[in-house]
Structure formats: structure tokens, C-alpha cells
Design goal:
- The chain is of the alpha/beta class.
- The protein has helices at residues 6-18, 23-34, 44-56, 71-77, 93-105, 119-122, 144-153, 180-194, and strands spanning 61-65, 85-90, 112-116, 134-137, 160-163, 198-208, 213-223.
- It has a seven-stranded mixed β-sheet, sandwiched between helices.
- β4 (134-137), α7 (144-153) and β5 form a beta-alpha-beta unit.
- α2 (23-34) runs antiparallel to α5 and α3 packs parallel to α4 (71-77).
- 40% of the residues are buried.
- Bound molecules: 3,4-dihydroxybenzoic acid (DHB) and magnesium ion (MG).
- 3,4-dihydroxybenzoic acid binds at residues 40, 138, 164-165.
Length: 224
């Protein structure tokens, strides 16, 4: 019996083969842990994927909803073109303080614009700063339709919108769903699939957690 599940071994294999140590990212993870932020950040493998997608889209302007400790923000900042910027929205003041520390430790602080407050208050103010080339949504799972509606308003044809946690270990397959927010995500996925302004799909991903493996997914949409 291997010590770890196959998916954990594969995740470690990809990470050790393709993802070299990065002091900015390591500091962000350690500092977030030190300050007891919930350990619900994306994995290194997901970070590299997000960063690659943003690079392939030559992103100069990125918008993230849900900063937490800024780990995903730093991955995305690494994808930016010279003079590119990322705006990241966080409603929790305590998370935002740690995220800002993590940005300032890194070489990317000048390119990261952290806005603290409720997304639906801050998003309308971004109209004058649009369009954005790439969006990463990783916030309140009950409000994904509304976030993506905003992303479409702030996008241009060819912009990419990625949403984290749209499968929830198969929670979206349950009928009836055990949790209220699974039902919201079910509605979101169907809405996304049918949205004729977007071309979308879901990439299944695994979160190799300490005690168990967890299947989740990221939706990916291209704005038509
Ligand atoms: C939770 C939130 C996330 O964005 C995530 O990636 C994993 C878990 C949560 O709220 O439990
Ligand atoms: Mg998430």
C-alpha cells in the first residue's frame, strides 16, 4: 500500500517536476498559515495552471474576486505583462491585512491593487477601469451568477473567466443537494453552460487534502 493516494502522488509529482520553489509564494503560504487564515487557497498545481492561462491570453489587466491571503493573486501577478496590473477584491479586513503583507514581501506589490470591501459595492466602480482580460472568481459560492454577470460587463471579447470550486466533491451531482450552496452551484453551472455570451466548460481538479482526497472543479469561460 502506498503511503499516499494515487492522486496525492500525482499532484506531488506535477508540483515537484514543473513548479520550482518560489520565495514569494512560499512566504505567502507560510505567513497565511502563521496568522491562521483558513487553508482554502488554491494548490500550486492550480496556481501554475491559472498563471499559464493568463499568460496565454497576454493578460495586462486581471480582476480577482476573493483574495484570502493573496496566494492566487501572486500566481496571477507572475503572469502579467510588463506594466500589467491585477485588482483583487477582499471583504474580510483581517485577510486583507495578511494579503497586503504577502504582496509587500514579494516583488509584485506595485502591480497589485487590493480593494477592501463588498464585491457588489466595488464592482460597479470598476466600470471606468474596464476592460479586464482575465477574471478569477473564488469568493462566496452562493453568488457566482452575479459575479460572472459583472465579469461579462467588465470584459471584452476574448476575456477569460475562471471560477473556483464548482464541483464540490460531487456536491453538485446530489439530488436533492445536501447543502443549500450546492443547489446554487448546480444552478450556476447550468446557467453558465447556457449563457450565449460565453463558451464554457469545467476542468475537474483534485484537492489532495491531508486526510482525504477531494474532487472539485474550475469553470473556464471565454467571452464571445
Ligand atoms: C472553501 C472555499 C474555497 O474557495 C475553496 O477553494 C475551498 C473551500 C470553503 O469555503 O470551504
Ligand atoms: Mg476556492
Amino acid at each position: 500500500m502506498p503511503k499516499h493516494s494515487l492522486i496525492k502522488q500525482i499532484d506531488t509529482y506535477i508540483e515537484s517536476t514543473f513548479i520550482p520553489h518560489d520565495p514569494d509564494l512560499a512566504f505567502a503560504l507560510n505567513n497565511s498559515k502563521k496568522h491562521n487564515l483558513p487553508p482554502i487557497h488554491i494548490t500550486p498545481v492550480m496556481g501554475k495552471l491559472l498563471s499559464s492561462l493568463a499568460k496565454q491570453n497576454h493578460a495586462k489587466r486581471i480582476l480577482e474576486i476573493g483574495t484570502l491571503g493573496g496566494y492566487s493573486t501572486l500566481w496571477l501577478a507572475k503572469a502579467l505583462q510588463k506594466k500589467g496590473t491585477i485588482v483583487t477584491i477582499e471583504h474580510n479586513d483581517e485577510y486583507a491585512i495578511i494579503a497586503q503583507e504577502n504582496f509587500e514581501y514579494s516583488q509584485h506589490a506595485p502591480q497589485i491593487d487590493l480593494r477592501i470591501g463588498e464585491a457588489f459595492v466595488l464592482l460597479p466602480k470598476l466600470k471606468t477601469e474596464a476592460p479586464f482580460d482575465f477574471f478569477f472568481i473564488d469568493a462566496n459560492k452562493e453568488e457566482y451568477i452575479e459575479y460572472v454577470e459583472w465579469a461579462i460587463k467588465l470584459a471584452h471579447p476574448g476575456s477569460i473567466i475562471v471560477c473556483d470550486n464548482v464541483l464540490r466533491n460531487g456536491g453538485v451531482l446530489q439530488n436533492p443537494p445536501e447543502k443549500e450552496y450546492y443547489a446554487k452551484l448546480q444552478k450556476f453551472n447550468v446557467w453558465l453552460a447556457k449563457n450565449d455570451q460565453l463558451e464554457s466548460t469545467i476542468l475537474p481538479i483534485t484537492l489532495p487534502l491531508t486526510g482525504r482526497d477531494y474532487v472539485d472543479g474550475m469553470s473556464m469561460s471565454i467571452v464571445k
